[in-house]
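Translate structure to sequence.
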């Protein structure tokens, strides 16, 4: 487990802070991060993974985002054993390879409800230990070259994350952030990148706590997160739906402007997503087939148009 003597800092965080004034010098003299130890992670050999179908691509740069998912499908089991963690790792890999046709497990790591951390895609653990390169995974749409992904066993739309799982997730994310010098404000939910509910309302709502805890462990100030887009679902009502409908009409879609996310609006959003290749091919471990037509982080910029994303974000969040 060789680790270099490179001094780890968050230049990115310092530079981001310059926007709030006078912190350029701070970026240049960023304090070293507090060391974060590697948590116990069970490798693909330990849970007896199948070999990948082709060579794992390793990119010559670190990831820029840590993306949190939930698996949804297996439900919230009471089985909290290491055997269960291995079983779910095997099940996810089989699903991704046999059903999705992927070369290997999509995400880089998995955290079981019992709090056991397993390696997902082969080589993810060795490359994470290096801290300079990134295994190309398959867990988000279009940003896999920059995003490292963690699947959390369970469904966290309404249920709380068990304390053991939360503790292990925090340990893993803090270690990743340390190894890759990723500022805590770049710890995001899948929802922040794609039009999906993942990682569920409950877990998504806890990400601010996760960012705060990681900032404490790294000994770095927490700069504000980048602006987030709202997630709208069929059946939703209100001003944000109305804004979406007006923008859809500007693009020729025949939708009402009643502020109700009905079937016509859903169809228009789904068609827009399809036209841009955003059919949720990414996160199959957590993809729900009933999410067709959801309007989220990858669709809003298309509706805004070039150069108008900040203006739209202001309208949606005021
Ligand atoms: Zn996801």
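Result:
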């Amino acid at each position: 487990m060789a680790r270099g003597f490179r001094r780890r800092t968050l230049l990115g965080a310092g530079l981001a802070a310059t926007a709030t004034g006078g912190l350029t010098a701070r970026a240049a003299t960023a304090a070293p991060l507090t060391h974060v130890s590697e948590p116990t992670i069970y490798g693909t050999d330990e849970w007896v993974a199948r070999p990948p179908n082709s060579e794992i691509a390793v990119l010559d740069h670190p990831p820029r985002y840590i993306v949190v998912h939930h698996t949804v499908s297996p439900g919230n089991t009471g089985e909290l054993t290491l055997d269960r963690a291995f079983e779910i790792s095997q099940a996810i890999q089989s699903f991704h390879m046999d059903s999705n046709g992927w070369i290997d497990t999509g995400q880089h790591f998995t955290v079981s409800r019992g709090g056991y951390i397993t390696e997902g895609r082969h080589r993810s653990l060795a490359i994470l230990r290096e801290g300079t390169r990134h295994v190309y995974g398959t867990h988000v749409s279009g940003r896999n070259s920059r995003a490292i992904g963690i699947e959390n066993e369970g469904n966290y739309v309404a249920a709380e994350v068990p304390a053991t799982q939360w503790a292990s997730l925090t340990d893993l994310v803090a270690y990743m952030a340390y190894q890759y010098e990723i500022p805590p404000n770049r710890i995001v939910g899948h929802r922040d990148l794609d039009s999906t509910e993942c990682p569920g309302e409950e877990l998504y709502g806890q990400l601010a706590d996760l960012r705060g805890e990681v900032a404490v462990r790294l000994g770095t100030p927490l700069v504000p997160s980048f602006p987030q887009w709202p997630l709208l679902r069929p059946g939703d009502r209100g001003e944000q739906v109305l804004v979406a409908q007006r923008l859809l009409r500007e693009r020729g879609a025949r939708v009402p402007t009643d502020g109700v996310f009905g079937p016509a609006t859903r169809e228009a959003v789904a068609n827009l997503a399809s036209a841009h290749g955003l059919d949720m091919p990414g996160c199959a471990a957590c993809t729900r087939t009933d999410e067709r037509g959801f309007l989220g982080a990858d669709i809003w910029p298309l509706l805004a148009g070039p150069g108008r994303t900040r203006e739209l974000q202001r309208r949606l969040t005021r």
